[in-house]
């Protein structure tokens, strides 16, 4: 049983006049903010604003690094040379850290986004490139990602900390991987289902897969998607439900 769980959400996913997430409201419930660094979403003004809000709420700032894919929101499969990807990861971390430090905080961890997240779960070369980018940025930051991933293997080989995360609002397959978006059961939409999933993961380290199999997932951080309908209210309810179940909600970084 876990005594403490982190709640993370993707924030800063806007660009110019377009805003996808209610960052200010979500910062009242989460303990870690995965902030878009400009490659799949985000711009300097948005990054600065979210970092300032995170510092005000005592929320840890994480760099949500991505393939350079604004048009596809970072969700399109791409083949990027390892040296290029490492440089782009370091660039994104550095850009966000500037605004984090200006707000009186710092970048405390790194989490890949979208297609890069899924690619680094099973591709050792791309995973190693992300880790190389983190090291190039100059600080041994923890890598947030799925258990048993190539990303975590590469990070451990480079002596970087790893943090296992699970998803409160995504479907799981029997092998412990996420159901791909677009397939039945990929995204949970019912509030009661998400609440039960959150407590089960945080307190018991278990989740029920789409085929009914019980899967063991020992996670230190629980992800809530900030772009789903009703995300703000759902995040508040999840935190309340966890506390009621005897789980301490606190940042890992």
Chain-wise SSE layout:
Blueprint: E1 4-11, E2 14-15, E3 18-19, H1 23-26, E4 32-36, H2 44-57, E5 60-65, H3 82-102, E6 107-112, H4 114-122, H5 124-136, E7 143-145, H6 150-157, E8 162-167, H7 191-204, E9 206-208, E10 214-216, E11 221-224, H8 231-244, E12 248-249
Parallel strand pairs: 1-4, 1-11, 1-12, 4-5, 5-6, 7-8, 8-11
Antiparallel strand pairs: 2-3, 9-10
Helix pairs in contact: 2-3, 3-5, 4-5, 5-6, 7-8
Compact description:
The chain has helices at residues 23-26, 44-57, 82-102, 114-122, 124-136, 150-157, 191-204, 231-244; strands at residues 4-11, 14-15, 18-19, 32-36, 60-65, 107-112, 143-145, 162-167, 206-208, 214-216, 221-224, 248-249.
Radius of gyration equals 17 Å
**Unreliable stretches covering 5 or more consecutive residues:** none
What class would the helix/strand composition place it in?
Answer: alpha/beta
Q: What oligomeric assembly is this protein in?
A: single chain
State the CATH superfamily name: Glycoside hydrolase/deacetylase
Overall 3D form: globular
Average pLDDT figure: 94
Order of SSEs: EEEHEHEHEHHEHEHEEEHE
Could you estimate the helical fraction of the residues in percent?
A: 25-40%
Overall domain count: 1
């Amino acid at each position: 049983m876990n005594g403490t769980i982190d709640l993370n959400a993707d924030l800063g996913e806007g660009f110019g006049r377009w805003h996808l997430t209610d960052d200010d409201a979500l910062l009242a419930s989460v303990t870690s903010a995965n902030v878009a660094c400009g490659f799949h979403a985000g711009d300097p003004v948005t990054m600065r604003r979210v970092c300032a809000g995170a510092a005000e709420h005592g929320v840890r700032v994480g760099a949500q690094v991505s393939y350079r894919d604004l048009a596809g929101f970072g969700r399109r499969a791409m083949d990027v040379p390892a040296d290029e990807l490492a440089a782009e990861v370091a660039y994104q971390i550095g850009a966000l850290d500037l605004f984090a430090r200006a707000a009186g905080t710092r970048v405390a961890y790194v989490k890949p986004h979208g297609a890069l997240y899924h690619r680094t779960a099973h591709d050792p070369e791309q995973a190693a490139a992300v880790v190389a980018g983190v090291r190039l940025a100059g600080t041994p930051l923890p890598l947030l990602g799925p258990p048993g991933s190539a990303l975590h293997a590469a990070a451990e080989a480079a002596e970087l900390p790893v943090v296992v995360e699970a998803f409160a609002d995504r479907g799981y397959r029997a092998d412990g991987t996420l159901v791909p978006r677009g397939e039945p059961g990929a995204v949970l939409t019912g509030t009661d289902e998400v609440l039960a999933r959150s407590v089960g993961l945080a307190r018991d380290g278990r989740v029920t897969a789409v085929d009914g199999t019980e899967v063991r997932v020992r996670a230190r951080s629980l992800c809530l998607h900030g772009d789903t309908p009703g995300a703000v209210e759902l995040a508040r309810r999840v935190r309340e439900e966890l506390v009621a179940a005897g789980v301490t909600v606190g940042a890992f970084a």
